[in-house]
Amino acid sequence: MNGWIPAATVVLAGGLGTTLWGVSTGGLGRRVIAQNLSTALVCPGLLLLAQGYGRTSYVDLALLLALLGPVGTLVFARLLADDLAEENPAGWGPTWAAVTVGVVVVLVLCAVTGPGRAMVKLLIVGALLIGGNLLASRALSGGFPGVGRG
Amino acid sequence: MTPRVRLWLVCLGGGGLAALLVAACLRLPAFGGLWHPYGDRAVRTSLARHTANTVASVNFDQRAFDTMGEMTILFGAVLGCVVLLRQARDEHRDPPEPCEVVPPVRRYALIVLPVALVTGLYVIAHGQLSPGGGFQGGVVAATSLHLMYLGADYAALERIRPVEAYEVTDALSASAYLLLGLAGVLTGTAFLANTLLPYGTFNTLSSGGTVPLLNAAIGVEVACAVVVLLARFLDQAVEIEEAKGEMSAP
Amino acid sequence: MADAVIVVALLAVAVAATAAVVNRDPARQALVLAVLGTALAVLFTVLQAPDVGLSQLAVGSALTPLLIMLSVRKVRRRSAHGKDGTQ
């Protein structure tokens, strides 16, 4: 037993709780933002779990989520562009909050891991996660101005 | 059959299934216990054959025949989709219109596409060492190509994705799995038996005998199958139009 | 305490699956389904099944939403087109 699992529990409970509430109620714009935030908050949780179980190979899960989560949000941004055009949901406040959680978790884990290949992998996951989330938020707020029939 | 009889039939079947499930659950070993008869045997066998990831050893060695069945299911499902979603006689194709995408999204797609492709190949290649394998990596690699559609437009995706080539590769990799199995028969043991190659050094990329080869065949098969499947869906959603004036049919 | 994370994951999956059924619009269902996918991946991870978790992430985060949204788009275009045709 170590402190990483409780930390992961808190991050996952908070992240999944808020995003589930956001994604299942309210308007379409709010739901899409919540879907984007689910990636941003679950990915740090998975990193903490990998550290807690002491298995570096579990980092692959976080890597895949950091890569494909924003791609999923881009799918919604692109194929719902007409519906989202009226709302132009940005949700920059929650997005930056989620990014802060991601940055803190990645930096703490880097400090614990120490220099090496594992740290490089953590930094790649962090960069993909944060870049992907900011970009997905940008795409939601009018990233596809001219989607016709394409 | 009247709706009433049908309802009774559903209730009977559902009730029977529920009773059987409850009965089965009552006999299950307790959650999180220490007694794992199947797990212990699987781990022992996978260590004996120098495969670090026991799940890969179960999938591509101890139960490789089951995996062949799963591969056939995916192959058949994609084949069914190709037949169902083909262009019908009363439909015609309109060339897709270009899509306007803001520069940051376009840049992101162009940067992440190669990264995701390499990650997919990494997940396939390390299937016998760490969590992952042909299926997972194949899906990631296939998804990565479609960033071209998300970040640019359909015409750009079509340029980097000749569907015919993926269809042929899909069939070839499915046959490769079968041929690797037959090679076991020819060398005097059994279908899909892991006796063809030396087991190699534990925890290296070439360890596990035929496991990496079968894993790679599945990876290519899944990647091509997903690309072909998405191509049919995209064709229907973007290009294929029904003839005008015949739209009153439901 | 180690079981707390399992309870959280199980609850998240149950709530997300219920929400996916309760919502009736396919686009909104696809959004809930995407979140359900990540919740399932967490559940598989805490039950020490990372291979299955990876499969779930690979399929659930981008591929399933893309397939559903393309189908929604086709159906919508068809009904819009149908309205023009009858006018």
TrEMBL record, chain A:
Localisation per UniProt entry: Cell membrane
Keywords, in A-Z order: Cell membrane, Membrane, Transmembrane, Transmembrane helix
Residues passing through the membrane, by range: 61-81, 93-112, 119-140
Primary location group: membrane
UniProt key word Cell membrane: yes
Any one Gene Ontology cellular component term annotated for this protein: plasma membrane
Membrane topology recorded in Swiss-Prot or TrEMBL: Multi-pass membrane protein
GO molecular function terms listed in the Swiss-Prot or TrEMBL record: monoatomic ion transmembrane transporter activity
Protein name per UniProt: MrpF/PhaF family protein
Organism: Streptomyces mexicanus
UniProtKB/TrEMBL annotation, chain B:
Sequence intervals crossing the membrane: 71-88, 108-129, 135-156, 168-193, 213-234
Chief place of localization: membrane
InterPro entries noted in UniProt: CPA3_antiporter_subunitB (IPR050622), MnhB (IPR007182)
Keyword terms: Cell membrane, Membrane, Transmembrane, Transmembrane helix
Domain Na+/H+ antiporter MnhB subunit-related protein: 106-227
Membership in a protein family: Belongs to the CPA3 antiporters (TC 2.A.63) subunit B family.
PANTHER family per record: NA(+)/H(+) ANTIPORTER SUBUNIT B, NA(+)_H(+) ANTIPORTER SUBUNIT B
Protein name stated in the entry: Sodium:proton antiporter
Organism the protein comes from: Streptomyces mexicanus
TrEMBL record, chain C:
Parts of the chain that traverse the membrane: 6-23, 30-47, 53-72
Subcellular location: Cell membrane
Coiled-coil ranges per UniProt: none
Major localization listed first in the record, in broad terms: membrane
Pfam families documented for this protein: MbhD
Mode of membrane association: Multi-pass membrane protein
Keywords: Cell membrane, Membrane, Transmembrane, Transmembrane helix
Residues covered by the MrpA C-terminal/MbhD domain: 12-77
GO CC list: plasma membrane
Domain of life of the organism encoding this protein: Bacteria
Protein name in the entry: DUF4040 domain-containing protein
